[in-house]
Amino acid sequence: MGTRSWSGWGGILVVALAFLLAQDGDHVAQAQGGAALRGTTMRVSTWGGSWKDARHVTAGKRLEQLGVKVEYVVGNPMDNFAKLVAARGRDVPFDLMELGTGDIKIQAREQGFLEKLDLARVPNARDLPPASVDVDAVSTHLLQIVIAYNAEKFKEQGLPAPTEFKQLFHPKLAGRVAFPDINTTMAAYTIVGFAMLAGGDEHNIAPGFKKIGELKVNYYYKASTDLITKFTMGDVWAAPWHVGWVFRARKAGFPMSFADPRGDKWTGMIANEWVGIIKGSRNRAAAEAYLNAMLDPDLQVDFAKRVFMAPTTRKALQKVAADAALRESFMWREEEIKKAYELDWKVLARDWPKWVEAWNRVTLR
After folding, report:
1. Residue 242: enclosing H or E segment and its boundaries?
2. Contact call for residues 97 and 259 (beta carbons, < 8 A)
3. What confidence tens digit (pLDDT) does each residue in 198-222 have?
4. With the CA atoms of 50, 53, 55 and 60 taken in that order, what torsion angle do they form, in degrees rounded to the nearest 10?
5. For residue 287, which of 95, 211, 341, 355 is within the disulfide window of CB 3.0 to 4.6 Å?
6. Angle between helices 284-294 and 25-33 (to 10 degrees)
7. Three-state SS at 356
8. Claim to verify: residue 121 and residue 168 sit in the same structural domain
């Protein structure tokens, strides 16, 4: 009976170990970071409230298990991007940023704030579809813009479900509609939707601001936590919002419902929301580990159950398909996404200063 040399067994062990690590992206990340991450403090730019809490109890806890202290810089992406610009030439204010939709991703890239990603160090990104991967950012969830409304109030008033933005102009809704502030992630789609009512779109946005000026708005909301209060107090009956807050309101017992806005050739509005590592970060390894945790399929599903936003990795979507409640909570099926409207974010990034000027003329008068 022959014997095998140590070098032969060693080769087999190396191959076997590599195979096992390849099966679990988080094991790869831990192997790469290992003890080097312990004692690190990293900062994540994200939204506040229940969103931040959901991020921390999923990805944040995973990092804490690796010995990393995670701190959060809260605010909407536009405000946090302003903090990044203000800190130019000094230490960056955060290591990882939830960029929101494509316009801020493009602006951050053009101004040199995003680090090119090494996806070998974010192995869970292998499971993303091509549309959710860029050279310097990946998408961790999908933003779905809907028209949210108080189902009881609409029933009392004999109003139909608002499947088109033009229905927000109904006389019975005068003074009962909230509109997203231009610095929120919901604003761009809503402004474009209003432009379409008058023959425009993101390439011809002026009609949109004209229509906004004609709407009898209760107020322009800057934070979803404020808007939910307005809904519960009865001040607001309808608002363009994202679908996640509809289900969070329902979970709290509020009679919230929603309809996907429709156009002549599309149904629904959806977008990738992006996350990137900030150039100049001294904690890149921790940022990569956090980003990898955000893409872990189990954590993606856990996060989806907390905020009701569709995950992006294929394995997570398979789990959504098997969950009777979750699969009906948001758009996630490929055929639905193909029918939805998605903005040309390059146009938005290019024309943003003009949008802000037009917004101020309409809303500050």
Report:
1. strand 238-242
2. no
3. 999 999 999 999 999 999 999 999 9
4. 180
5. 95
6. 170
7. helix
8. no
